[in-house]
Every structure is written in C-alpha cells, then in structure tokens.
C-alpha cells in the first residue's frame, strides 16, 4: 500500500497531536501514525501538571522558570531552548484552556496552580506554585483535548501501525515504512516532511513507569542510519513509583504536602535537602531514597522501598486532587492513602536524551549544525536539550506542547515550499528483510528471555548509581545479547496481529537504545544531574560541560562512536545561584 501526505507525524501522544494540529493549521495535508489508538498514548499517564509562570496563586515570572529549568538540568540545558520554552509555555497553557481542557480552578475561577519539585521564586529562594493541573489526570486531559481538535481539523489517523524504517536518501527524509497490525502488510508513506514524536525507551529497565509500547523504535532507526543520539546517558528515575510495579505516583502528591518516611518513620528528606525537603529535584530525591534503602532503613518484605505519607492531609484533598493515584494504590497495593502509608520506590521514568533537534524541531545530523532535510522531532523522543542532565518536574508536558507546536508549524512551512522528493528504489526492502529474518529464524533464543536479561542488567548496572566496572560489564552484556538476538525466531508464522513478531522487532530497538545509553554513560567521567557516578563524584565543567553525541559506526561492525556538541549558554551559570547552594 502507498500513501502520500504533505506532513506525516509518527506518534499520537501530546507532542504528536500538537504537531499534527499545528501542521494542519498550515493548510497542508496531514496524517498521524500511531501504535495505539491516540487517546491510549502514554501522555495519558502524566498526572502532575504543566509548569507555567502564570502567577495565579503567587507572584511568578518566566525568568524564574527559566532559571529553575537550567538549574534543574544541572547547567547542561541549552539556555536558548529554556528561554523559548519558559516564554511560550504561558501562551500554550492558555491556548489549551481555550481548546476546552478542564483545568482545576482557584476559587476566583483562574487556572489552579500548585507547588512542584524544583520550582522556585526569585531564583531559588523558596518554592512557588507553578504547576497547572487537572486534578491528577493532566496528561489524560491533554490527550482528549488535542485528539478532539485534530478530528475537527481533519487529520487522518492510521492506528495500530508500527513504523519500521525511515526513508532517508541524500540527506533528505522522504517518508516512512510502517507495518499494519490488522493486515500484516507493509505500507509506504510518502511525505514532504516527517515529524517523529513516538516517545521514549523506558522499557529497557525492569522497574519503569513507561508503557509497554515505549521501546525507542524511532531512536533506534535513526541511530541505525549512522545518525547521532544526544545525551543518552541522562535518564531520570522518578522518585515515587508504586513499589514493585513502577506505576507513577505523581510529584503532585508531594506538592500537596505528602511526606517521605523511612522504616523508622523519619522524614528523611530533611537530612538531604533541608530547605525544600520533599520538593527537591527528582535526581536528589531518588538518590536520597536509594541511600536510605542501602543503609538499612527501607520498608517492605525486601526492604527496598520507603513510604509516602498523606494521612495528615484532608480526605477531600486526597480523594479530590489525587483521585487517580489514590485509586491505583488501593487497587494494586491494597493501601489506602487516606489512612495508610503507601510503599514507593524510584522508577525509570524519562529520557532527557534522544534525537537531537534545533529550536524548531529540525533533526540534527551531527554536533556542528548539520541537519536532515524534511525530518523533525518533538517530545521525549527528541533532544532540543531543554532538560539537560535532569528534567524539571512538569516540564515534560510543557515540552510536548511548546516544541510539538513549533515542529508542526515549521514542518508545514517547509512542506509548502518544496515538492515531493522521489522515494528510494524498493523502499520496503530493509523492513521486509527484517521481518523475513525473524520469521525464518530457527534459532533457539527467545525474545522474552533476552528482554528480561536486558531489563534486569540495565537496572543493576546503569541505574540510579553508576560506576565504571558495572557499566563496562553492561557493555559486554549488551554485545552478548545482541549476538543472541540474531538467533531469535518467532513461533507464530502469521502476519495479522502477530504480537510475538512485533515484540521481537521492538527488542532489537531496545538493544540499540541500551547500547547508546551505556556507552555514553561509561564515557562521561563525572557526576551531573541524573548521571551519578560513584567513581567520579564531582561535576567537572572544565571537561564535561558539553553534550554527548553517540553514533553507530556503519563501517566497523556497528561500534559506538562518541562525539560532542556545545551547550548553548545564555547568562545563567552556577555563579548566579544564591549562596550557599542548599536545596
């Protein structure tokens, strides 16, 4: 099957839907490909809110938000991106309101705002109410709102299609190839501009808040073309996931007054962040929790969790503003936040790195400003480097909206200016060969077994705390798993709804993402943001204030090549911080 559109969006989460909507506003034909029905996309799991300096509850300014974003990113954030974001998100939130998103309200009828970890007033002096929210279902409401707007705008959707290849030739993207789950057929999508917005790759870890579909497909495909992935070593562990399950417990639960307690009932964050305690940035809270567990103050049968305490809060706050997580705790743990302490542990949550882009979403081909013509990216899959070394809470939803909008706008603008480029000869070849190899393999290795070994080893060796020997071991483990993956076969020969075939394909993508991540982390010999090395405890701006660019060497058995890209600086440095630096 063959399809042709001016702009093609891959992914129907918040970034993809915003990009599609704004591309459609540009008077071009738009289609959106999604693994899932759009409103089931992973953006729907985002609970806490969108940070924007509206000032509805307390005085706030975009400059303060920009500073918190840069500081939260441990100064690896590109500050031009942080400035654009902190300004644009204010207008974007009001735009969502006008589209019909049902934000929670203040008594005066304004959009309600609450405190969130790392958000401060007056450049770090105290916490500030900046998170705009819809109870604890903010992401779900964004999806519903944007999907309705896309239906209204005439966007064409291809649901349950899995993209298997990017058609890039002579430095220009000409479309994609996708597998239709319902028919088992490969489809060619010819486009003037393609926007990648298919989410992260958190399934490489054993304990994760990420949905089963987040396997880094498009990151891997981009990487296989010899193109770079940026800052893959920086992966955020959210401090509060439901114990054993990884299901996200929103940071809003601490914004509303939740307290972290160890096995002794102690409010331990007073020891690690005496100023803002439980509202410290996520990397600090995650490391603090793991330290408590390591030192024998964990809870549960395995002593590998801590408690979040809401019992001092009014029932109407818990069951009103935090309704979703209250229901999840009751359902999956049998713990009622109204009267019980709830067991939580850090969970792999968010990729700061990904496909490098400029401020307009255009995909970069190197660290010197080269680009792939006609190819854009937005959301967690992209790395405009808004988040630097550690994303500030609420900035994920803001990122989707601001940079999804910019990618859609500029992709449509580009599509209006160019003609369709010719497709490569036999565009289905690589995808067909991949599927044929999986179907024809008689190998004894099982994809599920390899996936389990990958997830457990990544959690152990490239998790919250890292060191050289563990990561060197993980490089070897990944090489071994990739060799075994060549012998993976599928027992189901059918083409339609072959989930075994899809999972085998996704495992290959996950192995690529894990390879780029581990090699980048081993190479960065410092601790910064979410990248915490026990053998290099200090942050080293003299040598490591730069972005990592990981490439697959297509001429040398796929070895990882590490390059670099400069950080865009614009006024904020550590010297700007209030002294002493205490969270």
UniProtKB/TrEMBL annotation:
Which positions make up the signal peptide? none
Which pathway, per its entry?
Carbohydrate metabolism; tricarboxylic acid cycle; fumarate from succinate (bacterial route): step 1/1
InterPro entries attached here?
A: FAD-dep_OxRdtase_2_FAD-bd (IPR003953), FAD/NAD-bd_sf (IPR036188), FRD_SDH_FAD_BS (IPR003952), Fum_R/Succ_DH_flav-like_C_sf (IPR037099), Fum_Rdtase/Succ_DH_flav-like_C (IPR015939), SdhA/FrdA/AprA (IPR030664), Succ_DH/fumarate_Rdtase_cat_sf (IPR027477), Succ_DH_flav_su_fwd (IPR011281)
Topological category with respect to the lipid bilayer: Peripheral membrane protein
- EC annotation from Swiss-Prot or TrEMBL: 1.3.5.1
Which Pfam families does the protein's record reference? FAD_binding_2, Succ_DH_flav_C
Q: Where in the cell is it found?
A: Membrane
Residue ranges of domain FAD-dependent oxidoreductase 2 FAD-binding in the record = 6-397
Q: Which residues form a coiled coil?
A: none
In this chain the Fumarate reductase/succinate dehydrogenase flavoprotein-like C-terminal domain maps to 451-583
- Write out the entry's keywords from A to Z: Electron transport, FAD, Flavoprotein, Membrane, Oxidoreductase, Transport, Tricarboxylic acid cycle
Identify which cofactors the protein needs according to its UniProt entry.
FAD
Source organism, top-level taxon:
Bacteria
- The enzyme class is oxidoreductase
> What is catalyzed by this enzyme?
a quinone + succinate = fumarate + a quinol
* The family this protein is said to belong to: Belongs to the FAD-dependent oxidoreductase 2 family. FRD/SDH subfamily.
Q: What is this protein called?
A: Succinate dehydrogenase flavoprotein subunit
Organism the protein comes from = Deinococcus navajonensis
Q: Which gene encodes it?
A: sdhA
């Amino acid at each position: 099957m063959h399809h042709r559109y001016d702009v093609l969006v891959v992914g129907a989460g918040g970034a993809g839907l915003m990009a599609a909507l704004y591309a459609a506003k540009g008077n071009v034909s738009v289609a959106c490909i999604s693994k899932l029905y759009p409103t089931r996309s992973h953006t729907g799991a985002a609970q806490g809110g969108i940070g924007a300096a509206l000032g509805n509850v307390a005085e706030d300014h975009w400059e303060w938000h920009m500073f918190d974003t840069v500081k939260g990113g441990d100064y690896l954030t590109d500050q031009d991106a942080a400035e654009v974001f902190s300004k644009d998100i204010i207008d974007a939130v009001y735009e969502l309101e006008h589209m019909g998103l049902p934000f929670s309200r203040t008594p005066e009828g304004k959009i309600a705002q609450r405190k969130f970890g790392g958000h401060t007033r007056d450049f770090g002096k105290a916490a500030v109410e900046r998170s705009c929210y819809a109870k604890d279902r903010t992401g779900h409401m964004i999806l519903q709102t944007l999907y309705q707007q896309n239906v209204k705008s005439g966007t064409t959707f291809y649901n349950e299609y899995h993209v298997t290849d990017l058609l890039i030739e002579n430095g220009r993207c000409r479309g994609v190839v996708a597998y239709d789950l319902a028919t088992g057929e490969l489809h060619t999508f010819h486009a003037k501009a393609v926007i990648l917005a298919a989410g992260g790759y958190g399934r490489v870890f054993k304990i994760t808040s990420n949905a089963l579909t987040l396997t880094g497909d498009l990151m891997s495909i981009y990487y296989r073309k010899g193109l770079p992935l940026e800052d893959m070593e920086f992966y955020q562990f959210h401090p509060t996931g439901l114990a054993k399950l990884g299901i996200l417990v929103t940071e809003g639960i601490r914004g509303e007054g939740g307290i972290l307690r160890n096995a002794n009932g102690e409010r331990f964050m007073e020891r690690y962040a005496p100023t803002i305690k439980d509202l410290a940035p996520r990397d600090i809270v995650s490391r603090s929790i793991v330290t408590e567990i390591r030192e024998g103050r964990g809870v549960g049968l395995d002593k590998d969790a801590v408690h979040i305490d809401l019992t001092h809060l009014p029932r109407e706050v818990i069951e009103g503003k935090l309704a979703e997580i209250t229901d999840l705790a009751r359902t999956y743990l049998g713990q009622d936040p109204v009267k019980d302490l709830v067991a939580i542990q850090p969970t792999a949550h968010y990729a700061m790195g990904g496909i490098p882009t400029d401020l307009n979403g255009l995909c970069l081909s190197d660290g010197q400003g080269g680009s792939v013509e006609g190819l854009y990216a937005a959301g967690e899959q992209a790395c405009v480097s808004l988040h630097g070394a550690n994303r500030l809470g609420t900035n994920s939803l803001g990122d989707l909206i601001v940079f999804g909008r910019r990618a859609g706008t500029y992709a449509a603008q580009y599509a209006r200016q160019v003609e369709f480029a010719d497709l490569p000869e036999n565009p289905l070849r690589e995808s067909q060969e991949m599927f044929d190899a999986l179907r024809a393999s008689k190998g004894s290795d099982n994809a599920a077994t390899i996936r389990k070994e990958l997830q457990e080893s990544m959690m152990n060796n490239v998790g919250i705390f890292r060191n050289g020997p563990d990561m060197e071991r993980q490089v070897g483990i990944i090489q071994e798993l990739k060799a075994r993956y060549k012998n993976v076969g599928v027992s189901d020969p059918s083409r339609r709804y072959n989930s075994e075939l899809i999972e085998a394909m996704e495992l290959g993508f996950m192995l690529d993402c894990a390879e780029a991540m581990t090699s980048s982390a081993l190479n960065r010999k410092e601790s910064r943001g979410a990248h915490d090395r026990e053998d290099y405890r200090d942050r080293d701006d003299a040598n490591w204030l730069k972005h990592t660019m990981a490439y697959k060497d297509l001429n040398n058995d796929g070895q990882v090549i590490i390059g670099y890209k400069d950080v865009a600086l614009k006024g904020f440095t550590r010297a700007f911080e209030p002294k002493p630096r205490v969270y």
